[in-house]
Each structure stands twice: as structure tokens, then as C-alpha cells.
């Protein structure tokens, strides 16, 4: 493997870095006020950074491959999981899914407006009673008078109450097979949404509850072939999980930077705390977790690049999917524990949201739940090694 950045990657990352520096003081303020950061969109929009992995044929799409996009999300992740989660919902789960499964007409109709930031996307799979087992979902659709009508609820949807266009999954009415995916415009009759309050973390990210009450969807807005909803969802989760892994690497980097800085300054027992060997051990552990997470994420992203280049190669896709699951699981857990170690190094100051480690500790907890919980991914990783007859989900 070659670990050198190309000149193009360096250029992209310098623009992303500049934009991230602009967003940091704003995110700091919104975090302490515990409210949705509505400046992420205009700031990234102005920098034309909302369509990295989307083909240049669609508006401001930049045609970046999965590895380059992972590098971008790593940098964004340093600013916090809330900001990165916005990108996961809008780009990784929303736009990328539309790019992969949409008809040319759907892509022309929506992608340019999503890459410019005029339309925000979200991805609605989870329901109040269907999370790890999406096949048990209840949302249904029926076709009447040339349109589809959706009924049901979706819960815990990132960007859900701010989105303009949502990828939504539903079964034909009265059935529990033949799931379909739809592009739902949130201006449609029968759609409503509200933000979820009192979350443990991610106060600056929108997480919505969605209601479909005979919500009308145009006949042109089924996404992918009829009955292929689960395949649409699973390929979306590959992009989504990679985005979580990459963002978690960014969090690990930020925890390391913060911990080193604090340990160099704070004095106890007449020494900089960085001279205490037990503090050095904590710093070493964060660094080891950072570098291992980074390597796994880059390997997973490199496999996704290859898989994207050969979309009909099922084996390559399964290999990329497995590595992405491992990278997401490993980096999400490593970032959570790195945040915990950084809080410990900060002592009581670590217990305040005024300091970044506390925010990372609260926010990274979500990464072990969304896009496949720890338990689901542990089983997915093991089943590949044991053989499909050990499949636990059927
Ligand atoms: C902040 C946030 C943002 C989110 N964003 C989105 C989004 O944009 N779009 C979207 O569709 N969803 C989103 N989700 C939902 C998320 O994907 C689900 O929460 C997740 O899939 C788990 O589902 P659940 O919460 O219903 O838990 P459940 O599935 O009810 O699981 C409860 C517990 O049981 C365990 N469990 C379940 N099945 C098994 C099994 N077979 N073996 C062992 N243990 C098992 C789980 O691991 C978990 O510990 C988001 C969630 C959060 C917290």
C-alpha cells in the first residue's frame, strides 16, 4: 500500500482544513448552547464541499473516490461527531445512495441541487420498533391514481427534521417482503417531522422523527428496482459505516492532540503531568488506537475504491463490506475510549463541555449504535469467518 497523499488529495484537504477552522468557534458556541449548528451548511456550501464522492456530471460533485472522501471525513471528524454526522446523512447515506441506485433522470433532477446544498438529504430506515432488524419494519406504501402513498414512522434519522429529500424504505401494504426505496420530498402532503430532544450527545446535529400520513410520492420517485429496498439499504450502509470509521479517526486525532497539549501544560506534584508515566501510558494508548484505526479505515476505503470500480464483482464487494464493518466497529470503539482517556487526563476539567474531550465522549457513544450496533457488527465479522451456516439473523 502507498500511504503518500496525491497532490490532488493535499489540495482538497487544505481547503477542507481551512473550512474546518472557520467552523470550530461556531461549533464550540452551539455545543455549549446545546442547539443544532445551522452554520455547517452555509459554510461548507460556500466552500463548495457538499458533493465530494458525487460524479462531476452532477453540479458541484467532485468525483472523489472513497479513500479521498474518507480523508475528508477524517478531517471533518476532528471538529466533532455532530458535524461529521451531517455529512454521513447528507452525502454518504443520501447522495451516494441516490448516485448508485437512481435513474439518470432522478440523478439529473436532484443531485446537482444536493451537491450545491440547495437540498439536504437524509436516510430513513430505522423505525420505533425496527432498528437492528430493518426487515421487521412496518412503514407501508400503496399505489393509487398514479402515485405512491406512504404510511408509517421513522425514528432517529440524522438530518431528519431539516432534510428536503429523504431516502425512505417501505413494504407494499399488507406485506412483509418486497421492500422498496423511495425518494421522498419533505414538502409532500402527508409528511411531517420533528427533532428528537434530550439526546445524550450530538446536540449540534439534527436527529429527527418522521411521520408519513398518506404521504404522496410521485411515481417517478421509486429508488432502485421494485422489491430491492434491502439491497439499497445495505449498500448505503457500506458508505455510511465507512463515514463513521473515518470520522472516528478524526476524533481520535483530536483526543490525542488535546491530551498531549494538556499534559504538556498542567502541573501537579511539581511536574508537568506529562512527566508522570501513568499519563504517558494513556497518551501512548490513544496513539496506538489512532494509528490502528487509521490503517484499518484506509484499508477498508481502498477496498471500497476497488469495489466501486468493479460494481459487478460480488466477492470484492463482500470483502470491502467486511473490512468496512471491522473498521467502523474498531474506530468507533477506539474513539469512545480515547475520549474517555482524554477526559481522565484533563481531570475535573475533562468533565466540562467547555473542553473537547467531554464532547467527544458524549458524541462518540452514538457511533457504537448507529449504522450497525457493536453487537450486530461483531456477529457480521464472525459469521464471515465461521461460514454462512452460522448466520444469526435469519
Ligand atoms: C444519533 C443517531 C442517529 C441515527 N441516524 C440514523 C439515520 O440517519 N438513519 C437511520 O435509518 N437510522 C439512524 N439511527 C438509528 C440506528 O441505526 C439504530 O438505532 C440502530 O440500528 C439500532 O437500532 P435500535 O436503536 O432500534 O436498537 P435495537 O435494534 O432495538 O437493539 C437494542 C439492543 O439489542 C441488540 N441486538 C439487537 N439485535 C441483536 C442480535 N441479533 N444479537 C445481539 N444483539 C442484538 C443491539 O445491539 C442493541 O444493543 C440513528 C441512531 C442514533 C442514536
Record the SSE blueprint.
Layout: H1 7-33, H2 40-46, H3 66-78, H4 81-101, H5 104-115, E1 121-124, E2 140-144, E3 147-158, E4 165-172, E5 180-185, E6 191-195, E7 207-218, E8 222-223, H6 229-265, E9 267-268, E10 271-272, H7 277-309, H8 314-346, H9 356-364, H10 374-386
Parallel strand pairs: 1-4, 2-4
Antiparallel strand pairs: 2-3, 3-7, 4-5, 5-8, 6-7, 9-10
Bound molecules: flavin-adenine dinucleotide (FAD).
The chain-level mean pLDDT equals 97
- Count up the helices: 10
CATH topology of the largest domain: Butyryl-CoA Dehydrogenase, subunit A, domain 3
Task: Write down how many β-strands occur, each being a DSSP E stretch of 2 or more residues.
Answer: 10
The set of bound ligands, ions and cofactors reads: flavin-adenine dinucleotide
| CATH architecture group name of the largest domain | Up-down Bundle
Q: What pattern of helices and strands is seen along the backbone?
A: HHHHHEEEEEEEEHEEHHHH
Report the portion of residues in β strands.
5-15%
Judging from the principal axes of the Cα atoms, what is the shape? globular
Low-confidence stretches: none
* Main β-sheet description: 8 strands, mixed
CATH H-level superfamily title of the largest domain: Butyryl-CoA Dehydrogenase, subunit A, domain 3
Sheet/helix structural class: alpha+beta
Number of domains: 3
Write down the CATH class of the largest domain: Mainly Alpha
Fraction of residues in helices?
Answer: 40-55%
Amino acid at each position: 500500500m502507498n500511504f503518500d497523499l496525491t497532490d490532488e488529495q493535499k489540495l482538497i484537504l487544505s481547503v477542507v482544513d481551512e473550512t474546518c477552522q472557520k467552523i470550530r468557534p461556531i461549533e464550540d458556541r452551539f455545543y455549549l448552547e446545546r442547539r443544532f449548528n445551522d452554520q455547517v451548511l452555509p459554510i461548507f456550501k460556500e466552500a463548495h464541499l457538499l458533493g465530494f464522492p458525487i460524479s462531476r456530471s452532477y453540479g458541484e460533485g467532485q468525483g472523489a473516490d472513497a479513500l479521498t472522501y474518507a480523508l475528508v471525513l477524517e478531517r471533518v471528524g476532528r471538529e466533532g461527531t455532530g458535524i461529521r454526522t451531517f455529512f454521513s446523512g447528507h452525502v454518504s447515506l443520501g447522495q451516494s445512495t441516490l448516485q448508485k441506485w437512481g435513474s439518470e433522470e432522478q440523478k439529473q433532477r436532484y443531485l446537482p441541487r444536493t451537491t450545491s446544498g440547495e437540498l439536504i438529504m437524509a436516510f430513513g430506515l430505522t423505525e420505533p420498533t425496527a432498528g437492528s432488524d430493518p426487515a421487521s419494519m412496518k412503514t407501508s406504501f400503496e399505489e393509487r391514481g398514479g402515485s405512491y402513498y406512504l404510511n408509517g414512522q421513522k425514528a432517529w434519522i440524522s438530518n431528519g427534521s431539516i432534510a428536503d429529500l429523504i431516502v425512505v424504505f417501505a413494504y407494499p401494504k399488507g406485506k412483509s417482503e418486497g421492500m422498496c426505496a423511495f425518494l421522498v420530498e419533505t414538502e409532500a402532503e402527508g409528511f411531517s417531522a420533528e427533532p428528537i430532544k434530550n439526546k445524550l450527545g450530538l446536540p449540534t446535529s439534527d436527529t429527527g422523527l418522521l411521520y408519513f400520513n398518506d404521504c404522496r410520492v410521485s411515481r417517478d420517485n421509486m429508488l432502485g428496482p421494485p422489491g430491492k429496498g434491502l439491497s439499497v439499504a445495505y449498500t448505503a450502509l457500506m458508505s455510511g459505516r465507512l463515514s463513521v470509521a473515518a470520522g472516528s479517526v478524526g476524533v481520535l486525532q483530536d483526543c490525542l492532540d488535546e491530551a498531549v497539549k494538556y499534559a504538556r501544560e498542567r502541573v501537579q506534584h511539581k511536574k508537568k503531568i506529562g512527566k508522570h508515566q501513568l499519563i504517558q501510558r494513556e497518551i501512548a494508548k490513544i496513539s496506538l488506537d489512532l494509528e490502528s484505526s487509521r490503517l484499518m479505515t484506509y484499508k477498508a476505503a481502498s477496498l471500497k475504491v476497488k469495489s466501486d470500480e468493479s460494481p459487478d464483482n460480488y466477492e470484492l464487494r463482500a470483502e470491502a463490506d467486511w473490512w468496512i464493518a471491522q473498521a467502523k466497529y474498531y474506530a468507533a470503539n477506539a474513539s469512545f475510549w480515547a475520549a474517555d482517556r482524554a477526559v481522565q487526563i484533563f481531570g475535573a476539567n475533562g468533565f466540562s463541555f467547555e473542553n473537547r474531550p467531554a464532547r467527544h465522549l458524549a458524541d462518540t457513544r452514538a457511533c457504537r449504535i448507529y449504522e450497525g450496533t457493536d453487537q450486530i457488527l461483531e456477529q457480521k465479522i464472525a459469521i464471515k469467518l465461521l461460514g454462512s451456516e452460522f448466520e444469526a439473523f435469519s
